[in-house]
Structure formats: structure tokens, C-alpha cells
Design brief:
Rossmann fold, binds nicotinamide-adenine-dinucleotide, 2 domains, about 15% strand
């Protein structure tokens, strides 16, 4: 649905009001379109750490222009599209001043919708003063996300020491975080090499179609976020098997036919649903590479008024069904090596929400599902989740006006996200080079003020 405030504020009168009354002034976010350059401009590099070589290799493989010892740009010159700082060389709190030395002179040389990425060492993998300093990076990047402005974003990527010789995961992650694909992701902490993830990443030769030859299951694919996930995975080369309830059959067929994909109509909570999905996948494709558990429902009521069915059905669709389907596919060895399992959580599962004890429990459970599975998977199979914030869909269009406006504006980008923002995040997890990206929960929420 459209954001009328955003349209109004972009008129000359709206801009005047925004300036004088201090109203939120949401920038029109740049989003990726197929065929466009991944990063439309130069990225300035800084810092003195162990990732210098991998960083350059990764950016070169993506075709991203980069420069070291960058100077502030003069009036009229093109501005930097991104800043990447390798902070892995910072081993004590005194060393944190290096961040200020690099960033402050360049902050006014950033273009609109620019990207900041700080690379660090996972604090839990080091000790003493280094651990303190590396943990401090989180406060730095989260604050920068709140002040960068003009549609810019800032993230921290912790790269485990054992992953530094494998630029593939760094490439797929930077390809996402430096490009317009991460338009609505900010203030996030990503871990590469977490949970002892295998580094058996596949080479990606064509970054515009990294999923060529892959098969993806998307539940709830007939509309909303699920439809966009299907579209983006198809754009990246995957064959998509869309699943939805029988009542949504015609919409589902329309989507999957357009994408030359396949469809299966069933209720994922059905007793035999996991076996039916497994059998379909086995017969049609022999296996699956990407499983996206997107289907979800809300049955909001305060706990005092909650009906038993409203509670149970929300847990059944959002949490138990993804668990059962995953277990069956893994048991039958249908998830291929270097496969991807992706859950769709919610910021409600992190911060809690009034009237959503059932929904928030189910979505926090999705995060638990990622945590518990990430350590157990082998063969390069990963599990990660997205936690969307306010995304413009039929679900959020039904929210009362005042609550909707608060939900939209209470984030660093002062606007709601689009289904495609969630889909792009999932496509990054799905990338065959993202093998070391395991056990992550990334919020797609424009750095919403709610929750951690
Ligand atoms: N829209 C948001 O702002 C937002 C925010 C956070 C999380 N999410 C999550 O994102 C996911 C998609 O949300 P959406 O806004 O696109 O919702 P939506 O209601 O538009 O789409 C959900 C889809 O899931 C399908 N589905 C529901 N129950 C099913 C079942 N038992 N079996 C098979 N299919 C079933 C529906 O038919 C529908 O096609 C959900 O998991 C939701 O909880 C959405």
C-alpha cells in the first residue's frame, strides 16, 4: 500500500513544512533493479586489519570500484557510495579512535542512500582488551545507523578468523550490504563463520544469477512478502516451488506460472503436509537447495481475551509447521549439500508486542529454531532468519491508522519497508557463496526503535 505522508512530504510545500516543523523527512530509498550496477559509485576503504586482502578480492570479484586513503570530495565531484572500515586490527579501547579518524572527514562526502560497513572479529573468539574493543564496534555502528541520514545505512560484520581466507562469504555479504538490495536493513550485526559454519562455499561466476540451477521452496508464495521472495529468487536464477493454502490456489498459480515455476496447494499444518512436500520435491526435482518458511498468520488478542484456537493456530502455522517440514526434508536427505533453510521471524519476536503473545512466541521460536539447528547442520547447509519490521503489505494495511503511522516512522529511515527488502535479504542468505553465513537473525526494519 502507498505511504501518502511520504508522497506529500516530497512536494515543495511538504519539504518546507518538514524543515520548519522538524517533521520526519523520509528519503526515497534506492532499490536494486536487474541489470543496474551493484554499487553505483566508489567505496572508500580504511582500517588496518587482517581482512585487507580478502576485502579487495571480494570487491574486485563483485566489480565494485574502491579506493584507499580517500580524501573528502570537492564541491561538484561524485560522492562516495560507501565506506568500509576493517577494524579487525583494533586490539584495545585506545585503538577505537581510528574509527573517528577515518570516518569523520568522509561523512560529508557520502552520497544519498550510502552504505557504511565496519568489519570486526567476533568478540567471543578473542580475549581481554581485544574482546572489549571488538564489542565496542556494535555501539559505534548502531549509532552511526541512526545519524547517517539521507537513506544511508550502517552495519557491523564480524568475520571469524577461520573465514578470512575465504573471500566468497565476504563477497556475497558485501554485495548485499553495499548495494541497494539492503535498502531497509540498518544497524545490524552480521556474523560470518558463526556456529562453526562450513567454508565449502561455491564459486559464483555470475553475480547477477547466483541461483542458476537451484530449486527453492517458498511457503505462502501467493501474495505479499512470499510472492516477492519467489520473484527475487527467480530473478537470481532459481526454479521456485510455491506452496499455499487451497483457497489461494488461483493467485499461487498465477505467480508460479509467470515465474515458470511449480506449485503445490496444501495447508502446511496438515498432518501429512511434510511428507507430501517431501514426496513432491523428490519426484519433481530429486531434492531442494533453498527452503523459505514464509507462510504466517496473526490472530491478535490480549492474552486475557485470547481464544484457544487463535493461540494454537498461530504457533502451528508460524513455528511447528516449519519445524516439521525441515525435519522431514533433512530426514529424507532432500536438502542438497550447501543448501539453505530460511525462517521468517518478526521484530515482535524480539521486542514483544501488545496483543501478540501468540505471534511473538511463534516468531521468537523461529529464532530459537535457527539457534538450535545452526550447530547441527552439515554439508554446508545453513539456517538463518529475517526479522521484518513494518513492511507495506495487506497485513499492515489492516492495522489502524495511528498505529500504522507510528510503526512506519519509528525507525532510522522514517518509513515502512517493502516486501522486496525482505526478499533481497533472503536472496543473500540463499547465495551459494554465503555458506559461512549461518545462525544469523537479521532485522529488516529500517533500524526500528523497538527491541534490541
Ligand atoms: N507484513 C509485515 O509487516 C510483517 C512483519 C513481520 C513479519 N512478517 C512475516 O512475514 C511473513 C509473510 O507476511 P505477509 O505480510 O506477506 O502475510 P500475508 O498474510 O500477506 O501472506 C501470508 C501467506 O501465507 C499463506 N498461509 C497462511 N497460512 C498458511 C498455511 N497454513 N499453509 C500454507 N500457507 C499459508 C497465506 O495464504 C498467504 O499467502 C509471515 O510469516 C509474517 O508473519 C510480516
Amino acid at each position: 500500500m502507498s505511504d501518502r505522508y511520504q508522497s506529500l512530504i516530497h512536494t515543495p510545500v511538504g519539504q518546507l513544512l518538514a524543515k520548519h516543523l522538524g517533521l520526519p523527512n523520509p528519503v526515497r530509498l534506492e532499490r536494486y533493479s536487474a541489470g543496474a550496477p551493484l554499487v553505483d559509485g566508489t567505496v572508500a576503504l580504511g582500517g588496518d586489519g587482517r581482512l585487507e586482502k580478502s576485502l579487495v578480492t571480494a570487491l574486485d570479484s563483485l566489480g565494485v570500484a574502491h579506493v584507499r586513503d580517500a580524501a573528502p570530495v570537492a564541491e561538484g565531484e561524485p560522492r562516495y557510495k560507501g565506506l568500509v572500515f576493517d577494524a579487525t586490527g583494533i586490539t584495545s579501547s585506545e585503538g577505537l579512535v581510528e574509527l573517528q579518524r577515518f570516518f569523520t572527514p568522509l561523512m560529508r562526502s557520502l552520497g544519498s542512500c550510502s552504505r557504511v560497513v565496519v568489519l570486526g572479529t567476533p568478540p567471543e573468539s578473542v580475549h581481554g582488551a581485544e574482546r572489549v574493543a571488538q564489542r565496542a564496534l556494535e555501539g559505534f555502528t548502531r549509532s552511526l545507523g541512526k545519524e547517517i541520514g539521507r537513506g544511508g545505512t550502517a552495519q557491523l560484520v564480524y568475520v571469524a578468523p577461520e573465514s578470512q581466507e575465504k573471500p566468497a562469504a565476504l563477497a556475497s555479504t558485501l554485495g548485499f550490504l553495499l548495494s541497494p538490495k539492503s535498502a531497509y536493513v540498518s544497524g545490524q550485526v552480521v556474523r560470518i563463520g558463526r556456529h562453526g559454519a562450513s567454508d565449502a562455499a561455491e564459486e559464483v561466476t555470475d553475480w547477477t544469477r547466483p541461483l542458476d540451477g537451484k530449486v527453492a521452496i517458498v511457503t505462502g508464495a501467493s501474495r505479499g512478502i512470499g510472492e516477492q521472495i519467489a520473484r527475487v529468487l527467480h530473478r537470481d536464477g532459481a526454479t521456485v516451488l510455491g506452496i499455499d493454502v487451497p483457497q489461494a490456489a488461483s493467485e499461487l498459480h498465477a505467480v508460479t506460472n509467470e515465474l515458470d515455476g511449480d506449485h503445490l496447494t496444501l495447508d502446511i499444518t496438515g498432518k501429512d503436509a511434510p511428507q507430501r512436500i517431501a514426496q513432491h520435491v523428490k519426484e519433481k526435482f530429486g531434492g531442494v537447495d533453498i527452503v523459505v518458511h514464509n507462510a504466517g498468520i496473526t490472530r491478535d488478542k490480549k492474552l486475557a481475551n485470547m481464544k484457544a484456537d487463535g493461540f494454537a493456530s498461530t504457533i502451528a502455522v508460524n513455528l511447528t509447521a516449519p519445524e516439521r517440514i525441515t525435519t522431514e526434508l533433512l530426514k529424507q536427505k532432500l536438502v542438497r549439500p550447501n543448501g539453505r533453510i530460511v525462517g521468517v521471524a518478526s521484530i515482535a519476536g524480539i521486542a514483544g508486542n501488545l496483543g501478540q503473545t501468540n505471534y511473538a512466541a511463534s516468531k521468537a521460536g523461529v529464532i530459537g529454531f535457527v539457534d538450535s539447528l545452526a550447530d547441527d547442520l552439515d554439508d554446508g547447509i545453513t539456517v538463518n532468519a529475517v526479522a521484518p519490521g513494518f513492511i507495506e503489505t495487506k497485513m499492515t494495511a489492516a492495522v489502524p491508522f495511528a498505529t500504522r503511522e507510528v510503526g512506519r516512522r519509528l525507525n532510522s529511515l522514517s518509513q515502512g519497508g517493502l516486501p522486496v527488502d525482505v526478499a533481497e535479504t533472503i536472496a543473500w542468505y540463499a547465495n551459494p557463496a554465503s555458506t559461512a553465513v549461518n545462525g544469523n537473525v537479521v532485522r529488516v526494519c529500517g533500524q526500528m526503535m523497538l527491541g534490541a
